[in-house]
Amino acid sequence: MFRLILAIVFIVTVFADCPGNSVQWPRTSPSKCYTLVAEKATFNNAEKRCIANGGHLTSVHESFTNSFLSIEANYTKNFKSDFWLGAKSYNLPESWNWTDGTPFDFNEWKSPPSSGAFCGAFDIRSGLWNAVDCKLKKSYVCKNDEIANTGSTIKPTKPCPDEWMYFEETNSCYYLAGTPNWQTTEDLCKSFGAHLMSVHSQSEVNFTKTIYNGDMWIGLYSKNNPIDWNSTWQYTDGSTVDYINWKNYQSHDSSQCVQIHTFQYNHYFENINCSTLNYGMCKKPSVTSHPSPAPITSTTQISPYCLNGWFYNVNTSSCYTVTPAVNWTQSEEFCRFNNAHLTSFHDQNELNFLSNTFIDNLQYGHLQSMWIGLYSADNETTWNFTDGSPFNYRPWNHGDPYGTWNNCGYYDIVFNKLHAGGCGNNDNNGICKRLSIM
């Protein structure tokens, strides 16, 4: 893989890779190198060994990395039960930190940590974490940055002013502004030669959350009043509205301004009253020229056939994306709002595409179980897809469906099996499907 960074009149080619004994994750940059060490050590000694190799015990910031670690550990020789993460509590049981200094913004505790157990271990079988005695000896996982080898020693031009943060995917600079209302924040951004942030992918949202992990204004707004499902939304910087991830769309009121809302480790769009006091994220182009696009994985095709944030399947001529973590009915409503339905499928190849796509793209999901468009209107006697296509391929998990008013279908993307569940009981991500735009 490579990145191109242009500096004045020089071109510097950067090759990023991981050592042979480690695994790159995610598959495309920016990514990290994970080294699974079967040799057992105490927590402190494991951390020292990771530091000696330029890294730290691994931190985990979302559920797809958690699933990745579970899968890798289960297929790694001599990883038998659990291994050290970089999670450590230095005082109170409810106060945890990562040894690499990143925010402790995600957890998968099996049960609430108790006093006297100050180090985090990852249970391979369940994928959940336990707080245990730091003096126990366990296998461990180190996390390092990719190794970059350049063909030149010329340093690139600094892409952003001081106190602004650079994001290579968008070639833009970001700055967190104070806590006024939406219009005042937009005016402040303009004084910096910027606008409130436009958002064009989930990875851009994830990046901004490394700057500020809380609710914040973005540049999305509507002139319609009242707001309804047919309202038109636009960005203050004039860019295309090609990615929206609503949590609760507040229709039939006057909430014309949009914030990114933090909710249970996920981040959604939410339209609220413009006079609300909030932080805001300013965004402006960097001083460097545009970088080359990130490479595309073999299982995920981002193409002109789909909107940004949707993934194209050449075999079905369809586009796919994910919903917020809500119940089945709300997931289907979300898909319909985006001119889609919860996904249907008609062979194992399509299911493999779904599994590979949404495992490889870590920004998505909270659970490995994802809603699909399968439902029963007669207590599991017959099953149909919401898009009206035939239910002609049925890889049910053993024992499903089992006739207890579990009338909605979900798909386990790790084990490639269908399950029947209660339509309103669980909050899962769902997969939307729509025909391509070309």
UniProtKB/TrEMBL annotation:
The keyword Nucleotide-binding does not apply. It comes from Panagrolaimus davidi. The keyword Protein biosynthesis does not apply. Residues 1-16 form the signal peptide. InterPro entries: C-type_lectin-like, C-type_lectin-like/link_sf, C-type_lectin/snaclec_domain, CTDL_fold. This is C-type lectin domain-containing protein. Residues 29-143, 169-283, 315-423 form the C-type lectin domain. It holds the Pfam family Lectin_C. It comes from the Eukaryota. Keywords: Signal.
